[in-house]
Each structure stands twice: as structure tokens, then as C-alpha cells.
Design a protein that fits this description.
By secondary structure, the protein is of the alpha/beta class. The chain has helices at residues 3-26, 35-38, 56-66, and strands at residues 76-78, 84-90, 94-99, 102-110, 115-123, 127-137, 147-155, 164-167.
Length: 172
């Protein structure tokens, strides 16, 4: 069994526990919507239950370091999903510049048939801060606790240039 297969199976087990927590919280029946929330453009994502307990970025980096570069776990590029329920931050494991003003972030995520991705980006002269957000797709009530490597393209206002790229979710 390859190192990346072992990592995926280990991470899937840990991720599954977090996904069950997120799913269970989403099925509590509690109405978390308020009139004030309806006036905002998008809900403020909550920190996922596994955000501080599991360092997905570190797990990704460990798998990448143990495998030849051409075998680094990358996953399929997901299109951003506009409406998500139970949004929460995901730590991204790696990124690459695919165009001057587009960065591709690699994440460990839930089943893409159930979970979608969004992003937030804040740009300054010195840095590009990006948060990747995951949540349940509309119309999905229950999902399997599978873990997948995925990717998300983030469009920037300006090319990265010499700016640092940082994880915005770590500031929330």
C-alpha cells in the first residue's frame, strides 16, 4: 500500500468523525437563521469541529513529502458552490499559481457529491489571505463520511507577485 493510500485511509477515518459531528449538528432541528442573517451576503463560516484538533494541512504536507512530486495528492478542481449549509473553514494543504491572478488550493474535503467549497480572499500590498470554506450542498441531508482530496481555484484582483500567501481562516 502506498504512503498516500495510507494517509488517505487514516485521514478518512479522522475526517469521518468530524463529518459526523458536522452532519449531526446540521440535523439538530435548531433554527439558526435570523432576520439579520438574511440581510448579509453570505453567512460567516464557523470553525469546523476538527479545525483545531486535526491539522489537515500538516497531514497533506506529510503525504506530499513522502511521495514523488508527480504523485502528490491533488484531487479534482471543484467549482465554487454559492449556497452551502453548515459552512466551516478547511485548512488548505498546498497551493500553486495556475495563472498570474489564479491560485489553486488543495484540501482534504468530504464527498464532493455532498459537500461543496467556497472561498474568501483578502488582498493587501504585502499578502494574499485565503480561506477555503466547506459545507453541505443544497438538497443534501445525509452524506457518507468519506474523505477526498480536492482543489479550488481562487481568483485574485491582482497577480500574487512577491506577496505572501497565508491562511485567512487562522485569523478567524
Amino acid at each position: 500500500m502506498s504512503t498516500s493510500q495510507i494517509l488517505v485511509r487514516t485521514a478518512a477515518g479522522v475526517f469521518g468523525a468530524g463529518a459526523l459531528l458536522v452532519t449531526a449538528c446540521g440535523e439538530s432541528g435548531a433554527d439558526t437563521s435570523t432576520p439579520e442573517a438574511a440581510d448579509t451576503e453570505s453567512p460567516e463560516p464557523e470553525v469546523s469541529p476538527t479545525h483545531d484538533e486535526t491539522d489537515w494541512a500538516e497531514m497533506y504536507q506529510e503525504a506530499a513529502e513522502e511521495a514523488p512530486e508527480e504523485d502528490w495528492p491533488q484531487g479534482e478542481v471543484q467549482e465554487p458552490v454559492e449556497d452551502l449549509s453548515s459552512p466551516h473553514y478547511l485548512e488548505w494543504g498546498d497551493y500553486e499559481e495556475v495563472e498570474d491572478d489564479v491560485l489553486r488550493f488543495y484540501v482534504f474535503m468530504g464527498n464532493p457529491n455532498c459537500y461543496g467549497l467556497q472561498y474568501e480572499v483578502e488582498e493587501t500590498d504585502d499578502e494574499v489571505a485565503v480561506a477555503v470554506i466547506s459545507g453541505m450542498r443544497d438538497g443534501v441531508d445525509v452524506c457518507t463520511a468519506d474523505g477526498f482530496f480536492g482543489a479550488l481555484d481562487v481568483e485574485l484582483d491582482e497577480p500574487v507577485g512577491d506577496r505572501d500567501v497565508v491562511d485567512l481562516s487562522q485569523r478567524r
